[in-house]
């Protein structure tokens, strides 16, 4: 997948956020949404008991992707396009590996949205990103992920 490695650590900054940083973080979150749309297409095929939940998650990610595209375009930037395909971290061959992928997708996306929260200048984008962290965290838990004290920031402080 084309999301940053989970070992990336943010560096706190005392400098005011800049529009370029806001757009770059939003572009990274958009790339994460593209990866989720792709990943749920793969995982959904192996979730016979969770097909409705997988379709709902896919729909949510498509909607958030489209909203993020509109926010980035409104900021005067060209939204990043989806890749034609994404390398999966492991083969998805059964329900267990599909659940593992779904949790990983959501956790990585939550971290990307947490990055947006940290640099967002506009209240609209910050609120969107906060909702993204919450949504990704709730979805990761629904797929069997472990609860964390600071979703999106675990292992990054």
TrEMBL record:
SUPFAM superfamilies: Ferritin-like
InterPro entries hit by this protein: DUF4439, Ferritin-like, Ferritin-like_SF
Xref: Pfam families: DUF4439
Domain annotation DUF4439: ranges: 25-154
Protein name, as recorded: DUF4439 domain-containing protein
């Amino acid at each position: 997948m084309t999301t940053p490695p989970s070992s990336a650590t943010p560096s706190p900054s005392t400098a005011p956020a800049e529009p370029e940083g806001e757009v770059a973080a939003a572009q990274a979150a958009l790339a994460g949404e593209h990866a989720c749309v792709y990943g749920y297409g793969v995982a959904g095929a192996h979730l016979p008991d969770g097909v409705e939940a997988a379709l709902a998650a896919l729909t949510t990610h498509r909607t958030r992707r489209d909203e993020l595209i509109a926010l980035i375009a409104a900021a005067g930037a060209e939204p990043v396009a989806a890749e034609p395909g994404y390398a999966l971290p492991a083969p998805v061959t059964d329900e267990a590996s599909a659940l593992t992928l779904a949790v990983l997708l959501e956790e990585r996306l939550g971290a990307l949205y947490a990055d947006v929260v940290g640099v967002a200048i506009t209240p609209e984008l910050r609120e969107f990103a906060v909702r993204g962290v919450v949504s990704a965290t709730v979805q990761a838990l629904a797929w069997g992920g472990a609860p964390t004290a600071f979703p999106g920031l675990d292992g990054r402080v």
